[in-house]
Structures are given as C-alpha cells and as structure tokens.
User: Fold these one by one.
Assistant:
Number 1:
Amino acid sequence: MRWDHLRLAGGEGNAAAGGTAGDGAGPGLPLIERGAVARTFDTPGFRGMTFYEVHARSVINKVPEASRVPFRWTVNPYRGCSHACSYCLDGATPVLLAGGRTRPIRDLRPGDRVYGTRRTGLGRRWVVTEVFDHWRTVRRAYRVTLAGGAELVCSGDHRFLSVDGWRHTAGHDAHGRARPALEAGDRLVAVGPAPAASAVGLPGVREWAMSPAARPAGGAGEGVPAGVRETAGPAGSVPAAGALVEAGASVAVVSVEPLGSEREMFDITTGTGDFVAGGVVSHNCFARKSHEYLELDSGADFDSRIVVKVNAAERLRRELAAPRWRGEHIAMGTNVDCYQRAEGRYRLMPGIIGALRDTGNPFSILTKGALILRDLPLLAEAAERAEVGTAVSVGALDRDLARLVEPGAPAPERRLEVCAALAGAGLECAVLMGPVLPYLSDSPAQLEAVVARAAEAGAASVSPIVLHLRPGAREWFLSWLREHRRDLLVPYARLYRGGAYAPREYQDRIAGQVAELARRYGIGRRARSHRGAPAAPAVAPAPPPAEQLTLPV
C-alpha cells in the first residue's frame, strides 16, 4: 500500500498537533496513522477520480505568516481538486536563473532562484523569486512557434503572458469552456531580443542565442547539480531586479498546433506565480504542494486523487481539548470548499461542527453551495456557544448576467435563499456584494435590488467589493467583454487605466451608496448580539484585495 512507511509503529502513541507533553509528538513522526484505503465510485460526478481515505495526525493548520488573511488557523477535511488545471512545459525548456544562465525545467529544484515578474502600481516589474515546488505530469502536447523559429512544447492549459494579458495555449478547458487563448499574431512578453532557433534537448524545443558579452564570468554556474546542464541566458543584458517590463520586448506567435500525443511535462511553483521559460513569461500553478506530504504526485494525482481525512472530527476534538490550544477562530472553506461534492458522500462536516460546538470554539464557513443547509441544526447549536460566521456572494440579481459571468455558480436567488435559511435558523450570514461590475451591475437601481433582497433574506451585513482586474481575472474578464460587451472595452480601459483596481473615488461612491441603502433597509439592526458583543455593522469592512472571489467567466 502506498504510504506504508508513514504508518504508526504501533498503538496510539502519537498526538495531533497541539497534543500534550508526553504524547510522543516530535520530529520524524508519520503523517497518517494508518495506510490509506483507496475507493472509486462509478457515478457521473466521481468518474475517473480516486478517493484516499486517510487518518490524519493533525487537522488544525496554521496559516503562513505571509498570507493576507484575517485569521491564523484553518481546518481542511479534503485535499485535492478535480478542476485539472496544469501549466506544464516540456522538460528541456530552458528557465532563466537569477544569475543570468538557464537550466532545463526538468532539472530545477525547490530553492533555485529564477526570474519572475510582479505587478505594482506603476506596471509590471522584473524580480528575482524562489522556486517553491517542482513536479512532473503527463499532458497532451501543443507546439507554439515564435517569430525567429523558436518552438515551445507545452500543455493546452499552459499560460503565456502576452502584451494583452495572460493567454492559454488551447482555447477550451477540459470541460469545454472557452477561455482566452493564443492566436497567430499575438505578441508574448520576452526577455531581450526574440528567442533564436538553436536546437537543444528534445526535438522541437529551442533555446536562446547568447552573445559572449552576456555570459557570466567563470563559465558554468556554481553549485550546479551533477549531470545538470546549464547554458548561458538570452542575448543582451539580463533584466535588473525592479526594472519595468518593457512593452516593446515581445515576440510574435507564428502558430499554435496540437501534436496529437501525450508527453511528460514539468512545472514549478514560484513566489511570483510566474517565471521566464524559453525567453517568454509563463504562468505557474501554486495550489498543488499540499498533495506531496502523502507521497501523491502534485501533477496528475492532484487532479484526480482526493485525500479524505476520515478521522477529521475525532482528531479535531483531541486538538481542541489540548492545553496549548487557545480557542482561536478557525476558518473553513479557505483552501478547498469543505462542502464540495465529496462531502455529500463522506459527511465529515457534521462531526467537525459538532466538535467546535462542544468546545465553544469560534469558526466561520465560506461556501458557494447549498449543502451547508443540511447542517443547519448543528450550526444553530454551535452559534449558541460561540461566534459562528457564514457568508454568500451576490453581485447582482440579473439572472442573464449571472449566467454569463458566473456559469458554474448557483443562481443569485438560490444563494440568497441559503442566506435566508441560515438567518432563519438564527445564524448571522453576510452578503458579499461582489464583484460589483462597473457599467453592468453598479446602477443605483441594481445596487438597491441586491440590498433589498439581502434585507429580506435577513443578511447581517453587506460588503460591496468592486471588480478587481488582477492577473488571471483580468484576462478572463476582458475576453468576456470582447465576446459579450465590446462597447464597454474602452470605458473599462479608461476606468482601470491599465491597473488592477478601479479608482478610489469610484469604490468610495459604491461603498457610500450601499451603506445608505443598508441603513434604509435596516440591515444590521436585527443582527444577533452574542455574549454581549455589539451587533454587526450594516456595512461590513470590505475584505483585503487578495481575497476577491475568483471570476469563473
């Protein structure tokens, strides 16, 4: 059985994180208590997926200090995702290292330092970043040919940074949904001159030409692992960290074609979410490393092998009872949805909520689905002993607009029904009015419609969140505008001015309108007061920019 060496040597001799002294907790202990049981279910919603039922050593996870979130602890009863997104390149593709040399992506390792980019208020800048993770997978291959003859072999999900934003290699995802994709004539952001066509490694993969003046002194880079080939970087100077990415440094796409076969490919996770490969800027994946702690591959396994912590409730009770646990707030639904499809079968959340209820520990749940209503009685009981927070997001009530912008999410009215059911059970449920779409859902009448329905649903507060156009969301949304509302392309360009956020005066105006509407409709007046705490404000503070929900357009 996979993970056999991670089993306990015997008995219950290991405590969860937060266990008491004498429990035997310490470095080198196994991550699970018993070998995993693998299950498959022959139903449409679970076909092609394997569920690994494990007994976890710990379920309360500390959030990294660098994360911009207002909580420190989470509980995630599931690991893995069935969306099957992979941003992968052929193993021979050269990646630009911080020292100016290149190394094939298959030979990179965590800790290596590479070039990436970071968007600031003044534009995108070159920065040096660290490789956090590296994995391999198998994907159907595509060839992207650039002006000058350079060729890149990658997956259809791989994204490149063009002068007009991020573009996927293939125009449709695994579910057939359209997305912004490369076309002949697009220009990719590049380092220095256009990549030249000198062959390396596997057939069809090219690397940059290199002028002698740009070669680092001393020849081969220091600390290069045995057997790993490094080459000099692109002709011309390596960009200085902090320098603006020049819009003129680009290379044209000549063609994009499927190769008709699968190929082993590689990807990395970096601190900036991107890197320079084959002379152009590529996006990377960042949510896969959690799979490696159980020796699951962070490539294909992440997409189809879901880890289920079947002892989550039992372990949580033990950790909550530990003397060192201070009863801090626990957030759920922040990594993967705790009410995802698998929860309908495994029913882990009732036990988790029961443990939090019995110890009076405060918690919150974020979910887009309606399965949370199954656990209403437990949530109501928990709210009698501790602060319990829930929230739904409703940007507009226009069903046609919602179907176009959020095709995979429940209808706005259904989400408000969830809010009403939660409020009817005595729970405080916030409504996140987001994203508010300029020129589409921001009229006074549209804002009032949402606030009025939120008031009818018993919302404890409302928080308007104006659309953020950060990398990723920006490309998707502008592509949607080009298809559905081309007349708004120029107004959006004027409003956002190439940045990620609408002007402060616009955001303040929307916030002021919503605040006035909330007061008029009495939102917040009926908010429950727990243990003498003041009622929730009519308009809750908007979450930090990093927390905007993903736009699934």
Number 2:
Amino acid sequence: MPLDPVYYVDDFGQVIAGVRARYGFLLNGAEQRHLATLDGLGPTARMLYARLVNRKGPCFRVARLTYPEIGSLSAALAELLAEGLVEPCDDAMDPDARARLYACFTHAELKASLRPHAPAGPRKDALLTWLSAWDGCDAWLMAFLRAHEVVRIPERDPWAFLRFLFFGDLRDNLSDFVTRALGHIVTETVEPARLRAHFQTRGAADDAYRMAMLYAAFRSRRDRQPAVATLAWWQAQAVDRAALSAGASTVDRLVDRLGRLLEREGEMDAALALYATCPVAPARERRARLLIKRGRRDEALSVLGAMAESPCHAEEDYVARHLLARLEKKSRRSEARHYQQTSDCLVIDYPDGAVEAAVLAHYHAAGWQGVHSENWLWNAAFGLLLWDVIYDPDIGVFHSPLQFAPSDLHEPVFYERRRGAIEARLALLADPGAAHAVMIGHFDAKLGIANPFVHWHEDLPRLLGILVDRLPPHGLAEVLRRIGRDIKRHARGLPDLFLWTDDSYRFVEIKAENDHLSPHQYQWLRYFADSDIRVSLEKIARPRGGVSCLTASAL
C-alpha cells in the first residue's frame, strides 16, 4: 500500500505532540515559542518546514527544492522567512556557515562562477581554501547569491534538540516512521500514555544532547584531519566528565576512539594523556598497555591495581589479572592462551571459511545432531523466556513509539531494575515444559516483531525445547542470568556448536589453526563448566604429516 504523499506531516505532528507530552516541563521559553510558531503555520509552510528539517542542511538551494505535494513553494517559503524559521544566506555569514553554503554547490559550479579569478585545476577543497583567503570573496559572494537563492535553517533553531528529546538519539529521524509504516520493521507496541521522558532534568537533557553533538562532530573530523588536530579540538571543548549528569558513556566512547587514532599515528604521549582523563574501561586498559610498552612499570602497576580492585566488568578483571601476571613475571601467557594450548585437538579436512560446518558434519557422522548455535540460540532463549519482562513499560525505559528495545538495555541497571521478575522467570526453568511453554507463547504472539535478542527462525521452538530439556535447569538459569547482568558484553562469545543425542548434549567451541580464543570466549567456557554444562574447546587441524595434538578431557 503506497504512502500518502503528505505522510510526513502526521509524523512531524507526532514528534511535536510527544515532546509536549513528555518534555513540556523542561522546555525553555524559546522552545515553547518555537512550537507555538509551528502550530500557527499554514498547511504548506508546515509541510515545507517538516521537509527541510528532515534533510541534510542547514543550507538549501531554493531552485532545487521540488515537492509536488506542496505545489508552488514561493508562498510557503515566504511564510517561513516571515516567521524566522528560515533565513536567506548572505555575505555576512561566518567561515563555518560559508562552508556549509558552498557544500550546496558542485566543484564545477563554483569554479565556473569564479573564472577568471580562481587558479586552474584545484580540487574543491583546494578551491575553497583559496576562496577563503581571496580578498574579492565578499563581493563575489554577494553577486553569486543574487544568481542562486539559498536559504538556511537558523543556528538558533531548536528543532534538532526537540527531535533528540523525542528519539533519544541524533541518528534517528522522521524516516523511522516510514520504515515502520512500510512494514520494514515492526516494533513492540507501547501505549502512548505509558511512554516516559528519557531525561528528568534540563541539565541531563542538555548534557546528553551536547555530548551527542560533540561525538557527531568528532566522527566528521576524524577522517579529514590528523588525530592531533582532532585532539586539540576536543580539548578546546573543556568537557568535565565528572560534572555531567548524562552523556558520560559518550565521552568514554569518544576518548577510546580518539586515543586509538592517536596510537595508530604514533602519538603515544598524547594518547596516554587522553586515556588518563577517563577513569573507566576501556581507557584504563589502553593506558596500562601503553605504560607497559614504554617501560613505565610503576605507573602501569598503579593503573592495573585500580582495575583489579574495582573492575568495570569481567573482561577488565581478566585483563588486569593477565597484565599483572606479566609484570610480576609469573606468566607471559594469558589464561585463555594456556587453556587453548592444552585443549582437545580434532584432525579433519575442511575448506577455508567452513571449519564449523566441517566439524558439525564430523559429529553428525558420529551420531550427534547439532546446530551452529553460537550467540543466537542463547539470546533467543533469553529474549523469548523474558519477553514481557524486557518490554515492561512500567519500568519507564520506553520514550518513543519507535523504540525496538528498552533504553537501559546495555546499562548495568538493566538486571537490577528487573531482578525480581527475572529471577521468578528463571525459577520456572526447574519445570522444562512450563519454561518452554512460555517461550512458545511469546514466539507465537510476537513472531516478526523486532527484538534485539531474537532472530526469527521456524525451527527455533524445537531447538529451544531441546535446550531446556537437555540442560540442567540451574546451569541454564546461570547462563541466562549472566547475560542479563551485562548484555552488552555477555550476549556474545558463547560456544559455536550445540550437539545432542536422545539422552545427552554438549557444547563445542571451535578454533581453527592460527585462531585464538578471546577473553569473552574463555570466560564463557569456564562459566559453562562451573555451571555444570558440558562444554569443550577443540582445536581443528588439517591432516598432514607430523601433526601433533595435545589432548585434554572436555570440561
């Protein structure tokens, strides 16, 4: 069914209504007046504004604006200009605004308009550099804009912030409504009255928005300038992480990405100084590794001691133990490397890139049934057993009708906020039939709805039935509990294969030649064993003369 040509007007209205309903208490006077101005627009002006703010801007060539459903744009544009919702571009714009204006034109168009003044043959970036220094630029720009009418969204326009409040993310926009309307994605339904504000104070909203905007600016800069220049820009922002009421995780991500760029470009001292500004993972690990590499043992021990005493998560705890053992000369091999070297070895032939399929075929020939389960089967068990717990709107973590997952999904508080409900459902695993019935009920009722844990597959109910029937209930509960405690890290790294017979089962992690066990994978193997779940690690080697394999019993 085709969309109504003016579908976006209703979507635009939903954003305005949602912002008013959930964030009216924290909007300032200018934002309230802006919404009132939008309410007072005529139909075509409202349509044009909705179109412009959902396009890449902020500058737009009027001659290139073509919207058949609006008809003549002149009246709509005149109304927006009169209300101050758009403004003409002129020669009084600052250098940054001029750069955005020039982005509306091709290299060829700019070069043609600058003849005979511009030097021959430069690329667009070189042409713009020359243009910014040319003493005739202002006069040329005045004449150029008389020939090419260009308007822009004013810098004071608050729509980007209002949209951020509605979606909770800069990356989302009105096109998400289209995706849903066309059926490309189906999300869980949360009644509008049960949606809650993501931010409870103006300070939190401002901090989160500012950090999101800075991260977007970082992504734009990192590919077009040296890392040290990006670092200078970041330092000039004077962000005090400790003072933020929201957005600290965005700062941590930016520091990690920028620090790694500095490392790749050989700016080790700058990277160390940057990592030192961030007191959490992964910056602490990167700082410790750089200190070790540069021979600053005492400083590295101090950082590693803090990591070991109060690790941010299990992976950081593992890294701290490994690096401390190296510094204290107890072992240069990690626990994962040692474990892999003493694991079982299976000699079979396999084509490149198909080692899991070859091992699965080997076990099928030996009488086992099985699937390449890795993360998806465990995640599906978590998502289908706990669907209603995950999507409970009363927890207050659904803020937009387009959300496909709760906003705290990757936060430590996810489990704590739902502890009682999660534990009650995990206790149901003591009755495999009852637990499987809950999973099947959710499978049938929610089939096709987007869920970060569930990849829909027609054989999923049968495989989940085998899983809950074969595994010890306490072991299955322990694995699902661990996933829930840290979804961001624990929903990955699980064993490759799930194998079973009529009365047995096992999980197998596979490592081909030259493939190394990651800390995530090692930790899951140990956790499975500690939870009384049968699991083994198998090194796979192609048959050839002189192959020697250490053999160890399965865990």
Number 3:
Amino acid sequence: MLSLWIALAFVSRHSLIDGLLQPNDFKLLNRVAEPFPDPEASVSVVDLSSTDSSSEWLTSNEEDGTKTWTFDISERGCGSARVHLSSVNLDKDDQILVYGIRDKRKVRTQTFTRTIGDRVYTRRLWAEKIVVRLRMLSSRSKSYFVIRYVQYGDCKTDNLNATKVIPGVCGKKDWKNAICYILDYPDTYRRASSIVQLQFVVKKTTYVCTGFKISDDGRFMTNFHCLGDAQVVESAEILDHYDSKSCKEDKGRARRTMHGDRLVWTSGSLDLDASIFTVKEARKADFVPCVSLTSTNPHFGQQIDLVEHPLGLMKKITIKSDEDVKGVCTIDKYNGSWVFPKYWCYECDMAQGASGSPVFDYKSGHVVGINSFIINDCPNFGAKMSYVKKAAGSHVGFCSSEAVVDAAVRWSGDSSVYIFRGSGYWYYNESCKCTRGDPLSITEYWPGLPDNLDAALVWTDGKTYFFKGTMYYRYDDEQDRVEDGYPKSITSGWPGIPDNIGAAIVFEKSSKAFFFKGTEFWTYENDRRSVRGLINWETWEGLPSHLDAALYLSKSNVYFFKKKQCYKYGVVRGQYPRATCEKFRGLPCS
C-alpha cells in the first residue's frame, strides 16, 4: 500500500516526457526528475515551424535570390544559439549559410550544399546574433527548407538562494561550482573533467541532462529517460568542460561541443534507467577522460559525491550535505529500499538537469551508480552500477588506466624533446606543438635502453639518465648508446631515492633533482642526503599524486603527466589539467 500511495501521489504531480517514458516504466520508480523545462532553465526554444512565425525574422529578400533570417541572441539575455532545420532540399549550387555575428564580425560559418533531409542541427554558436542565409543562384531555383526552431543557450538565470524550494535539494542547497573545490578536493575536481552536459530536443522542447565518458573509444553514459531513443540521440548536443571560471557565479562557456551519433545500448525501462551512446566527433571525444565503473558496492555510510549540471547550469560538485550526520554525502539506508533493490539512496543535492550524473565513491573515484530520480524531494536515488554493468555487458567498453606518457626528456645536446611510452618514443616539435610521425622503436634507436621506462632527466653533469625498476642508465650523447658499465642500481648511484619511481625532473640552473613516487617526492643534491616529503598543496601547488612523468621545457613550461592528463606547473585554474593528446598533439589518447 505504501508504494501504491507514493506512485499515485507523485505521478499525478509530475508529467512524463512523451516519447521517452511510458506509464508502465513506473513499476518501480515513482517520480522521475524531468530534465526540463524549468523556470530557471538556461536554455530555451523559439518555435518557427510555421511560415508566419519564421517570417518575423526575415530581414531581407534580395534581388539576387538571397534570403536572410537574423536572430538576436544577446537581446534575449542569452550567450549562444543553435538552429534546427527540417525538410532541407537544395538545388545544385544553392547553399544554406549559418554563421554568428560577434563584435560586428562573422564567426564560424557553416555551409550546407545538398539535399540533407528532415533533421539538420547546426553547430552551437557563441555570438550576439545568429544568421541563416539561403543563397539561390538561379531565379528558377526550387530550393527550400523550414526553420523549425532556434535553441538558445547560456541564458541569464535568477539567482538560486538557499531558501528557495528546489526538488531534489535536501535541506539547503549544497552544490558549488566545480572550481570551488580545486584546493580542498583536488581529486574530485580532476575527475569532474569526465562529465558533460547534454541538451536534446523532444517535441520542440529542449531538455537538459548530465552524462559522463565511460570508455577509451568514446562511449558516454546517461539516463534512459534522457537519451533512450535513437532520434533523440541524434538531436543531442554534448557540451564538454561547461565550467565556470569563477567560484561565486557562472562565467564561461563550453570548451568544445559534440553531437550525438548512435545509441549503443539502453536499459529500455526505468528498472535501471541507463543508456550508452557515442558522438560524431570522435577526435573531440578523445580529449574527454573516461571514468572507471565498478561492480563493487560501497557500504552504507560510505562517502560519495556528485558531479552534475543541475537546472542546466554550469558544472557543479556536491560533496557536502546538511542532511547527513557526517555533513558530507553518503550512501544512506532507506526504509523503502525494498521497493528499489537496484538503486542507491542518498541525501546528496541534485535537481532537474542532474539526471545521468555519476555517483562517485569519494575515496577510489570509481563510479558506483548513475544518478536518476527524486522521491518526495528527498532522498535522491541512483541505479547501482553493478547492475548496470551486468545488464550492459560488453557495450560498456573499456576505460584504460594506463599512462599515456612513461617518461619525457629535453635532450641536452640539441634541446630536442623526446616522449617515451611502452616500446616506442616520439620526437616532439615545440614549433608546431606536435609530434613528428608515428612512434619509433626504443630498442632500435636508443641502443641499450629497455622498453617501459619509469622516468628520465638531464643531470648537472650534462648527461641524460633513464630509470626503470631498480636500475638506472646513463646515455652517451656522442656515441648514441648507453655507456659501458650500465645499468647500475639506483641505490648505489642515487642514494636515498626509491626504486620504481613515477617521475623525475631537474629545473634549469638547479643543482636539485626531484623524484616522485606515489604520494611522496624526494629532493636530491650532489654529495647530500635526499630529502623526503609529501606531494600536497604547500609543496607542489595543484599537482596530483601518483605521477607518471615530468617534462621541463622552459621556466614557464613545466609539465607533469598522470594517466591521460597533463598538468602545467604553476597553472591551477582554467585550462589545466588537459588531455595529454590535446596539448601534445600526435600522442595517443589512450
């Protein structure tokens, strides 16, 4: 009787999303957090599917056969827009041009030159105006299309204060902009780079959800009630790094935009409420790091956190909870959990638009669930990842935890830069900021060096040293080979430095070498004992532990590598960490 009462109470309060959710999907769940619309939405749609409504924006009908429609983005209090076209049929040589106007200049022109079909989604433009032009070269041209609607984004929203009642917020609102946690919770901030915002259209209404990358080959996961249909996936925009640069207010824009391609797998119901999809821009997807999904269930009381896009806002992180005894988000016991055996329960704040966000185990950083829905405003629920992984099987793909870079060094002879990984190495050109060609064999071109190096550095004697396991190698630059008598043990040549180091670096005009392993680092000087310390904010500002490699290029260009990301020393906000393959073009992304 309890579950029936809850179902009647909440299904009557909240409508379903037509075409995505069916009444029988509510066998287990009672209230789904609709992605949108919402009065606080940062996206909106203007419907232009009728001739009369679209003609309002027809600013010219020129004699040369060019028709122009102009839509003012900034006048609506928004920062970006995207146009949805349909019934596109162009004669030979006719064109549709779509571009933005920013500071009285054209930006990012997109051209369509053939019959495209019923659904055309232009790229999102951050501009003051967006312009659609139909250019017909013949007076007999029969080209036509329909401007179905303009989807605005980055619109100004009202301030969300702690006293306003928002479904999904338990007590007062505890989420903050992701950048707010860069100092106190650096690991959570770093894994937030795997989260994207989804904007998609159902029946001329824009909805917003959250998603996250789950595999090296560019698969993403979100809720079934968000992207549970192939056509909806095709309409979806995926905004990567839609983060604010300010802790107190939303300022910024997405670093890159991708578009939905294929629905790989879906649970088909709200029993698990999960879907897996891919994007058209595979290269862009390579820049988004994936997260590890776990089949291990955390215990009750274990700390979790959410990374989400609630209410269509820029990326937020929820770590604290004023409703939990510990003051932080935890997996809770719930007396109705027997109704939802495949779901976690927590009083970690979310809201519409946060559907599909990952539930992270705070300590390991693994995803233990996928955030899904709200019951009676609080608590909130997410499907257990152990059940989702089992149901999806091989469709989940694989997220590698391997390092992209094993070792890197700037050669002492001619200042060339070499990057090593596995059995291969790349020559890095600083002029083009890219590698030259495919990787070459280490054993063939570096006589005497082994594969799978741990670290490399140029020491004060001008020699280049390589480290692997318990041994180190000194390389003869003139003879182009490992010097006679090497390798030697690290303990004999570098007293106090541990075996199996993760990274090593020497700064220019310095007599110190820095070695990193796990959560610790060692400082080494000639004829002096090494000094041991912890990698933290006071010692190495903004760097993570368990580094894989380090590279000194210049005083203002010092890089550290961990798995698929690189960190620029001294830059703790904004552009870093970044995907290593994005910064060092030509390196593999996984």
